[in-house]
Amino acid sequence: KLESMSPISSKSYCLELRIFSEKVKRRTEDISAGDIRIYLAGYEHLKMSSISKKLSVLKSFFGWLTGEEILLRDPTARLKPPKKEIRAPKALSIEELEMLRESCVSVRQRALLEVMYATGCRLSEVQSLSKSDINLQSMSCRVVGKGNKEREVYFSFKAMYYMRKYLMNRLDNEEALFITERKPYRRVGHRAIQREIGKIAELAGLEKKVSPHTLRHTFATLTLNNGADIVAVQHLLGHSSPSTTQGYATLSDARKREQHKKYLVQ
Known about the structure:
Elements: H1 7-23, H2 33-41, H3 48-67, H4 94-103, H5 107-119, H6 123-127, E1 134-135, E2 140-144, E3 150-154, H7 157-168, H8 190-204, H9 212-225, H10 230-237, H11 242-246, H12 253-263
Antiparallel strand pairs: 1-2, 2-3
Helix pairs in contact: 4-8, 5-7, 5-9
């Protein structure tokens, strides 16, 4: 809390440390690097990124204990995070995006889809949006992302149209931009948004798994493929490092051919 970490991150750290304490039943000062290796080895079924996250939480915890001189040595000091699998984010094609749009059965679904795609926001950022955050004149809003960093994101004409239509049909006094379908009306939760996007993908008959994060990947990939500046996309996504945004810069074959033709010095 003192380091301004988001409540979601704090909750996640708490859960990870609770699991660790239940599995490694030893006094904190007696825990060795070997104990931690054995603990992490028990998660061989998980992806490397998930194991890295578990180690990162432990490194943070034991590093703090050592820094505060509660422990004399840090058992995680010599443990290196496993190599992450380098995979291109699974973005949707323009055709697949259109299939999702046409499969929406309510204005609420369409508004949610268009807002998530147009802004490239994270799930938590969209979930915490309120009606008062929307600037209708500039077709934009300010969101608070990772690390408590604020940034401005923008809506498309389609997003504005369906968002206005959705808000006009609402008879409640809730301040949240997206609310539950049934009474008592309240701000929609993270899981409910995930389920809604999954439902739309099911109706569209898409075989690949579609999540709110897929729409963020799609925003980044299609925008970069359309010629957007990578630094601009970095700021729109709220990435602190351009190398993170670089992961989305997977150009289509047609775009590569076009760039070669356009920029090759003959």
